[in-house]
Write a structure and sequence with these properties.
The chain is an alpha/beta fold. Helices cover 38% and strands 21% of the residues. The chain has a single domain (9-46, 59-143), classed as Rossmann fold, CATH 3.40.50.620.
Length: 147
């Protein structure tokens, strides 16, 4: 039986949240044996963290954080399908996701919406919204069900 989506290259942005893990599960349901799955995690550069003057936070360095991210994704998901590719980028999540989607010629992006609204959305920005606006392929946004 064919999939509703004729997607041979599905991109799943991954931020280690439960919602992103669910999105990966949904992408697996859409995929068939010939589908390539791509997971991307975008590490926000340490220099972009706004800290109060005098505040000291040890976040490691960007290269270490990127390697840890790749190792964790690979350890967690590599056994789920033989057709998974992992990528870790440094930068702004919305931009890096859409750039990577173009590079791999993604047919579909499957990602969660974390459902931020109001001031939180204004301050943090909406990665999902940026991806929808700039992606050159369809984007499936999965909303978390209200309880």
């Amino acid at each position: 039986m064919g999939s509703y989506f004729a997607s041979k290259r599905i991109l799943v942005p991954f931020d280690f949240s439960d919602q992103a893990t669910s999105a990966f599960g949904e992408a697996l349901k859409i995929a068939d044996d010939t589908t390539e799955l791509f997971m991307i995690n975008v590490v926000v550069p340490i220099r972009d963290f706004a800290l109060e003057p005098g505040m000291v936070v040890d976040l490691g360095n960007d290269d270490v954080r990127m390697k840890q991210s790749l190792d964790k994704m690979t350890e967690t998901f590599a056994s789920r399908s033989p057709n998974i590719h992992f990528e870790v980028r440094l930068g702004s999540p919305g931009h890096e996701i859409t750039d990577y989607a173009k590079e791999i010629a993604a047919d579909l992006i499957v990602m969660p919406s974390h459902g931020r609204s109001g001031l939180s959305r204004v301050l943090i920005g909406s990665v999902a919204e940026r991806v929808i606006r700039h992606a050159e392929c369809p984007v499936l946004i999965l909303r978390q069900k209200s309880q």
